[in-house]
Write a structure and sequence with these properties.
CATH superfamily of the largest domain: Glycosyl hydrolase domain, family 43
Distance between the termini: 27 Å
CATH architecture of the largest domain: 5 Propeller
Strand content: over 45%
Structural class: mainly beta
Bound molecules: beta-D-fructofuranose
Oligomer: single chain
Length: 486
């Protein structure tokens, strides 16, 4: 009997994204094991299929040939009732070796510790499973765990989230960790055969956070590299950043640290894969910000970002841009832009009976540094709005969420998201925005600054798009597409 997954109907839910990836139901957090195999992209993810809350963590699995349409696959990994992953199958990666595909993951358990003391966070076993032909079923290895003991690095707060890659004639693995009193760390291991691993030292550590989750080294030309880290330091909100630097032969020299998105934006625990075309394709978890009651009532929580192509620019900054494949979702095209302004300087570009839009707009500013604000007003009414503003004098991009919903029940952070976007005098502001019901992803100036955020407006019948700015700001063009949401 083939395994059939039916997606319950969420059509009445105004907040459920339509073209972003979500599991059939329940909870989702990190992307895991993203990999392209024979022209098909595999996306595994942290999933509680039974409820929209974290816990009972499985690896969900979906496959796509085009990066935008996904077919659900059977659950790849489920926690055992007792054993190395009885507390959940936590994050990890996928790796291909000849005909074999191996998932390498973190066992959520309190049972396996070096000193026999149950301590679920400190020593989580790194385990593996092999795919059966067809990659529909996965067999956990009898020689789990792959790493039998913690390395001698003082007091380790915890370890988790392996990522494996091929380098020259060997395999390398990074694992996220925390060193008590010394912040987050990345452990480096080597192997000849993916089964026996040798500790090769700390790839990097820094007094930032308590533990680094889901670290991943992205290498570019000329030994330049970015070490992605998801900084965990409860009770503060976790966030994602990267160290930009140089990587050679197992050694990483960081040059600077930077946030991956605007401060307080929603993307977390990203994972990337180098596809057959040599691109780094990255996905991240966009967290839910509704109340627990609302999530329980609707039956789902968490959404995957669009696939982002990650590159490094000449200054060592990461650029993130939506994968070009996403543009295949474009349907009805742009409205012509009306350059006339109304009396109060507000320029209505169009009204769209849709919550699934892609917007590309460019503004220029002549003479003295000006300001511009693009507004997405929620219809009907328009009192609820999201604004994206830029100030050429201050070099700051600001996403205004203060008026994004009249609701008082969601837990969405309404503080503005702001950050530096330094444009040269006369350089155009280029905005690329995706709206998918409660998810908004913003990319500015070829992905130099990005932010994913959640909004839960009470009015959901469409969006009016307009802008206002100082008199010396001109709209160069705006294209708006309705995206295929099926
Ligand atoms: C990141 C994370 C990982 C862990 C997984 C558990 O969001 O906490 O460190 O492996 O989620 O679901």
């Amino acid at each position: 009997m083939p395994f059939v997954i039916t997606r319950p109907s969420f059509t009445g839910d105004p907040y459920r994204p339509r073209y972003h990836f979500l599991p059939p139901a329940g909870w989702m957090n990190d992307p895991n094991g993203v990999i392209e195999i024979d022209g098909r992209y595999h996306l595994f993810y942290q999933n509680n299929p039974a409820a929209p809350v974290w816990g009972n963590i499985h690896w969900g699995h979906a496959v796509s040939g085009d990066l935008v349409h996904w077919q659900d696959q059977p659950i790849a990994l489920a926690p055992d009732t007792s054993g190395l992953d009885e507390g959940g199958v936590w994050s990890g990666c996928a790796v291909r070796h000849g005909d074999e595909v191996m998932l390498i993951y973190t066992g959520g358990t309190g049972k396996f510790t070096q000193d026999g003391v149950a301590n679920g966070l400190r020593n989580m076993p790194i385990c593996a499973a092999l795919g059966e032909p067809g990659l529909q079923t996965w067999r956990k290895l009898p020689d789990n765990p792959l790493i039998p003991a913690l390395p001698d690095e003082g007091d380790i707060v915890g370890v988790r989230d392996p990522v494996v890659w091929r380098e020259g004639d060997r395999w390398r693995m990074t694992i996220g960790a925390g060193l008590r009193g010394r912040g987050g760390a990345v452990l480096l291991y080597d192997s000849d055969d993916l089964h026996r691993w040798h500790y090769a030292g700390l790839l990097h550590h820094d007094n930032v956070g308590l533990l680094w989750e889901c670290p991943q080294l992205l290498t570019f030309d000329d030994e330049r590299a970015a070490l992605l880290v998801s900084v965990w330091h409860p009770p503060q909100r976790s966030y994602t950043g990267y160290y930009s630097g140089i990587y050679r032969h197992g050694k990483f020299e960081p040059r600077f640290f930077e946030l991956l998105e605007l401060e307080n934006a929603a993307l977390y625990a990203p994972q990337a894969t180098r596809d057959a075309r040599g691109r780094w394709l990255m996905w991240g978890w966009i967290r839910e910000e509704r109340s627990l009651d609302e999530s329980l009532a609707t039956g789902w929580s968490g959404v995957m970002s669009l696939p982002r192509v990650v590159t490094m620019d000449a200054d060592g900054h990461l650029r993130q841009q939506p994968a070009p494949e996403v543009s295949t979702l474009r349907q009805s095209a742009a409205l012509p832009v009306n350059p006339a302004r109304d009396a109060d300087g507000y320029n209505l570009l169009g009204q769209y009976a849709s919550q699934t839009l892609e917007i590309v707009a460019e503004f220029t500013c002549a003479g003295t540094p000006g300001q511009v604000e693009l507004e997405l007003r929620m219809l009907p009414g328009g009192e609820e709005r999201l604004t994206i503003a830029y100030d050429w004098a201050r070099g700051r991009l600001q996403i205004g969420r203060g008026q994004s919903s009249l609701s008082t029940s969601d837990e969405a952070d309404r503080a503005d998201l702001t950050g530096a976007l330094n444009l040269a005098a006369g350089e155009a502001l280029k905005l690329h925005i995706y709206v998918d019901h409660s998810v908004v992803e913003v990319f500015a100036n070829e992905g130099l600054v990005c932010a994913a955020t959640r909004i839960y407006p009470t009015h959901n019948s469409g969006i009016a798009l307009g802008w206002q700015g100082t008199p010396n700001v001109m709209l160069r063009f705006a294209h708006v597409w309705n995206l295929d949401a099926t």
